[in-house]
Every structure is written in C-alpha cells, then in structure tokens.
Amino acid sequence: MPAPISDSQTISNIAPYLEAHVPGFRGPVTDVQKTAQGQSNPTYIVTAASGKYVIRRKPDGELLKSAHAVDREYRVLSALRDTDVPVPDALHLCEDESVLGTMFYVMSFVQGQNWVDPRLKGENRDMRVAVYDSMNATLAALHSVDPAEVGLGDYGPPGNYFERQVGRWSKQYRACETETIAPMEELIAWLDAQTPPEGPARLAHGDWRIDNLLFDASGQCNAVLDWELSTLGHPLADLGTQIMQWQLPPGTEGRGLMGVDRAELGIPEDDAYAELYAKRVGLSEAPDLDYPVAFAFFRMAAIIQGVKKRALDGNASNPESGLKMGAYVPMFAQAALMRIK
C-alpha cells in the first residue's frame, strides 16, 4: 500500500487510474489544490486536461468506526442527482485503498461562491436576502424528498433519530474524551431524558450551514456539499443545526450571528426563518426547536472533541486548527444548556 497523500504529486500520479474509471477524464493532472475546508475529510480540487474535478478522501491514521464515510457521501450525491436538491455529479468511488492509501471519491467541480462568515461581508443587502431565501428553500427541498423514491430507504437504521444520534455521538465523544467537562455531562443527561417523538423519516444532511453550500452570482444555491453526517432522520435536526450556528460569535472562528443587526443586513431572525421553512414543507406552524438546537450544540462539541483528539495524536488534517477548535467544546455545551434552561 502506498503512503497516504502528502502532496499534490501523489494525486498527479494516479491520472491513468482516473482516466480508466472517471467518465471523460483526460490527463495529465496540471494542478492540485487542497481546500481550506474539509477538516474532517481532506478535499482536493484537481485540474486536468479535461477540466476540474474534486477528490474527497478519508483522513490518515486510525479512525473511529463509521466516521469519515466517504462512500456514504458518494451514495447520497448519486441518489439526489435528479431531484430539486442541487449537488455535484458523483463520478467515481474508489474503495481500493492501494490507489491512494485510503478510500476516496471523485465528483464534478461546481463553480460557486462559498462563505464561511454568515454575515456575507462585502455583499449588498439584496444578495444576502437572496442567499438566505435560497438556503431556506433548498433545505425545504431536501426534506421534501422521499428517501425510498431515490433509493435511500435503507440509508439509516430504524428507531427514534434523536435517541440513536445522541447514543452514537455520546460514544464518539467518550472515545475521544481527554478530560471531564461538566457542562457536557449535564447536557448528555438532559438529551437522554428529553428525547422528542420521532418525526417523518427524511434525509438529514447533518451539517447544514452556509459554508457547506455554494451559490451562483444571483444568490441561488447551486451545490450542497459535505454529506458525511447524512442519514435518515428527523428533518428538524438540520434546521436546529443552522439555528445553532447563528448563536455563535461572528467571524471566521465562531461563524455565527451573535449580536449582529440582522434587519440591517437583510438576514432573517431565527423565528422568521423557521416559519418560512415550516410553510415550505407544509407545517401548520413553526416547530419547537429547543431540543434540535441543543442536540446540534452537543453533536458539534463531540465532533470538535474528535478533531482535538486527532490533533493531539498527530492525525489531524490541520493540527493547529484542530487544537484551537477543541477549546470550544465546553463553550458549545454551555450554550446548549442556556437554550434549554
């Protein structure tokens, strides 16, 4: 087995493999750029004679069971291709680890604007209005897809989504725990005790936020990315994830809207955004989001605890960033407790 990817030369060397397995691909590879995003699954923009492509792979090192499932991402992209949910074309999944040292897949490159900061700094008010409306409409479109009709009826296990997700992420958190964090202990206990009834089974993206979306020049969403956490589950988990993100401080680290004058910028308040979503998916009223938001804080805390552990073990894609992110674990847990008390 070759060494794991360390630089662009490794990808450049597999041009013959890509020519044999990716429709229309033609080498040579002339450029490989590792994206700034993709902390969990390293992602590369590959330029070849036939155009641009994206390669997304599992990270190096020992991985938690069921984590970094790029094969599941590939399956979702394939299933959603002919729906109203905009996704890149899934071109090839390579499960042969001898090619790059780990499983990877190739998807089409989608040209689009991506924002890490949800304030959309540098854009005018009309653009912000368009982006947030399209983001809302795209989420509603995703939750309007019948999983069984697109071949995803078995994409998640049976049972209460929140119950099994809290159990899963609690185990992941315990496996990466580096110290006892009291707010996390309290939050896990509350989530276990307050599990809401199961909702209609829908495809849940799992990490719905603006930096996982691409937009065209008019502010319309033209690609939903990063499906690593997707599964069948409760649709309010995605809405809760987005509302959770907005409670964080603004800037490239918090990536939130805390303290921002949203009316001036043209960004909807939480309630208005939830009401618009409810209307689009056919709900009679805006849903109660306390549990979904608290769960979203908890899951993100568990994820970044894993990033911190990989950084400490020397396996993170960006060790410095991983350690910095790890400091947010107790803050996320405390924010969830403030929401539910």
From TrEMBL:
<dbReference type="InterPro" id="IPR041726">
    <property type="entry name" value="ACAD10_11_N"/>
</dbReference>
<dbReference type="InterPro" id="IPR011009">
    <property type="entry name" value="Kinase-like_dom_sf"/>
</dbReference>
<dbReference type="InterPro" id="IPR002575">
    <property type="entry name" value="Aminoglycoside_PTrfase"/>
</dbReference>
<dbReference type="GO" id="GO:0016740">
    <property type="term" value="F:transferase activity"/>
</dbReference>
<dbReference type="Pfam" id="PF01636">
    <property type="entry name" value="APH"/>
</dbReference>
<feature type="domain" description="Aminoglycoside phosphotransferase">
    <location>
        <begin position="33"/>
        <end position="252"/>
    </location>
</feature>
<keyword id="KW-0808">Transferase</keyword>
<protein>
    <submittedName>
        <fullName>Phosphotransferase family protein</fullName>
    </submittedName>
</protein>
<dbReference type="InterPro" id="IPR052898">
    <property type="entry name" value="ACAD10-like"/>
</dbReference>
